[in-house]
Amino acid sequence: MKRLYAFFICLLAVLAMRAQIVTTTPDFPTENDEVTIIFDATKGTAGLKGFTGDVYAHTGVILSTGTSWQYAPTWGDNSAKYKLTSLGNDKWQLKITPNIREYYGVKDGETVKQLAFVFRSADTSKEGKDTGNKDIFVDVHTAGLTVRFDQPAEKENLITNTALTIQASASVASALKLYVDATEIAMEANATTISKSHTFSTAGRYTLKAEATANGKTVSATQEVTVLNGTSTSEKMPQGVRPGINYISDTEATLVLQAPQKEYVYVVGDFNDWTPKSDYQLKQDGEYFWITLSGLTKGEEYAFQYLVDGSIYIADPYTDKVLDPWNDSYIESTTYPNLKPYPTGKAEGIVSVLQTGQTAYNWKVKNFERPASEQLVIYEMLIRDFTEEHTFNAAKEKLEYLKNLGVNAIELMPVNEFEGNTSWGYNPSFYFAVDKYYGTKNDLRAFVDECHSQGMAVIIDLVLNHSFGQSPFYLLYKDADGKPSADNPWYNQESNIKNTSLSWGYDFNHESEYTRALVDSVAGFWMSEYKIDGFRYDFTKGFSNTPYGENDWANGPDNARIANLKRMSAAVQKRQPGAYVIFEHLAATSEERQLGDAGILLWCNKNETYCETAMGWSGSKTDFSGLYAGTSMPAGSLVGYMESHDEERTGFKAWKWGNTGVIASTTSTNTGMSPATGSNINLSTRTKRLATNAAFFLTVPGPKMIWQFGELGYDFSINNNSDGSGYDDQGGFRTDPKPIRWDYFEDADRKKLYETYAALLDLRHSYPELFASNTTFSWKVGTANWDNGRTLSATSIDGKSLVVVGNFTLADKNFSVTFQETGTWYELLKDNEPLSVSSTTQTIAVPAHEFRLFTNFKPTLTGIETTAPDAEKPLIYYNRGMDTLVLPAGEAKRVEVYSVNGMLVMTQEKCTSVGLSALPVGYYMARAYMEDGRVQVCKIMK
């Protein structure tokens, strides 16, 4: 009983807070009144408590004809009319003027029932909401006599045998009465308020009524209160179930919620009209609560939430689908057809979805063979900014483009549900649900399946350092200040890292067995359900509780962190041997070496270096050497990249700050240079510099990563937004949507850059022994070698060798180059033009901004005609460099070329090649009918 008494005291405190979070003048506002709103930021969720920046109201109205928000601005609208005025002491004022109808623009004939509010910071990162993370509502009254409830809050829940204060107010002095169901419990003859304490001894749902009579007129208000059983029935869970939704049959599902120290749980949803009924109270098995739902309709989706200890509403943390009241309405039907509507008026906050009898996805590729980790060429992709449709399906249609480029793995930025629709995904909310803004669960499966069919692995980005306010793991255990409570099984109350540049959201406690189990189950789920081949874990520096100060960048070494990360990687390998585990760690080499020795891949950021060389600057920042693992780091352990989602684009810096020779190269600082320096750097020069960068990147042994559209010289700033705004780096946030420029592929200079990437990767994949961990590799890439050129050399254990020489200066140069041996070498990008090397030291002419690549053997690549016997040649292939269909096996009777839509666009009779320059950029299919009766099909991507 002591615990129940404590709960009752807390309940009264909650009621008091709800009553004060917003006050109005006048006390009973009508549609035609000017209204002053006073918001107390210390009440409700207290998300804006102590905040001193600008505060705005996201506000709308609830009409008498419905329950959803109307006349609300776009989320994040910082117009002056929505800005609050600080009154000090965490009090904020909003004027709704000249009246409610005109402020919101309510149409004639519509009646306003309530005002709706969420108060937020200007950047939307902080919110002030009602207790339980609910929207704030203010009743709008009719003129004249009105009565309302002040206590309890609407849809209040309490437990049996506790007293509830019921209080009502009238707009004028009246004869007031209070009822519970049909029983009168209090009366005042002439008053504006009435109050009565009432005890409910039996669980159930009760209707409260307040009645006011004045001047011969009687009005009333009603609301419901639900009385719950505050104790749980103990019973063992069925064998084999685990936290989340367990499908038992086409009509049954067992729900399991892990909630240590909680007292009781109900489930509410479509199956019980969102009412916490006794038949839907979960049984308790230790720290687990469970219930088996029966009589479900096969294939029907049911939305539901858990009601925990009478006041906490959460979606199932392990659900694979959620409905979002704030963001689902912005998802197009073409993205997610037949999306189940949110249960507006019945639920608040995010709800989970269950569906029995789902049809299993029929995988085309059942046993995908992953590329070896040291051979990975990863393409980092943000679905949102990769195609205009921002969908898995649209991205799937671009896979041939990536395959032709030479990509063999795609790394998707977070695709599990995150807060909002257009985020980068590093504010996760539900770890097992596919974000619907990108498409359906099966759309993602089809994307992975098609990647596998084209030889590409799929890696997903997981964010398990932190989450934010929508996470059920947070909502279950938080204190009055909005922080994770001390008894939260999953989170630390405060981040162990005090440096604000390394601290986001609510910090997971990776020393907790609860968090470790969650981390492992997340990885297991995605590998099992979606055949994901590996993971890139975000900010793994945070995966310990070792304290770091405000100016500490947490570089370690941190023995607790190392042990935890090794444990985590081993758990992935136990579930799926050979899966990729990649850390964004960027810590001390001594720590990264230990992780690399454990088979973990680590991000290697060389953005600054490659930006400097793309700009044509020299100096201390231009040393490539840290990219190669094999000396200080285990060979093949570094995933090198010139840019990722987090860094400024090399193409942008090449455009804005490219060196024209006006400023001495020794003054390069990456800042302080006049933007005019780069304004005259033409596209041809820029793409040549970017191609030379690629030659000194993609030929280095070890896994590599390309940020999307880097292969086309994407040159909009990371700080730009989707309207482009020229090429400037102003006008947007880092995480804003960016311009999507597939038209870049139509530009000759950009397409040549793409083809350079493709040729380098073709060489890499055709001769993997040259780029293996046992390759003898060296380069002359230090800061003192500009005028003497930069070179790179590699020799495989079977004697194949390559040499790359690059000219990063502003003028054509002759460089002295050391070859591994004398004899005939071949220049890759000049159709294998032979070079006679009579001495291992040879002078090589290299134009400004360009490179030359030589091999001591004649490579056979996709775009280079082979000299093998005719019987070994393909019947037909597409030569990208020549933009020509080539028929090396002999003359064809007829060649037909079809568009992607199946339309015949070109035919040619009696030919050994077909020029395709007349065709616009796009996808085509060619069919060759040979003289001997053979027929071959060739896919073409121009």
Automatic annotation (TrEMBL):
Keywords: Signal. Pfam families: Alpha-amylase, DUF4961. Residues 1-19 form the signal peptide. InterPro entries: DUF4961, GH, GH13_cat_dom, Ig-like_fold, Ig_E-set. GO terms for biological process: carbohydrate metabolic process. Residues 380-764 form the Glycosyl hydrolase family 13 catalytic domain. Belongs to the glycosyl hydrolase 13 family. This is Glycosyl hydrolase family 13 catalytic domain-containing protein. It comes from Bacteroides cellulosilyticus CL02T12C19.
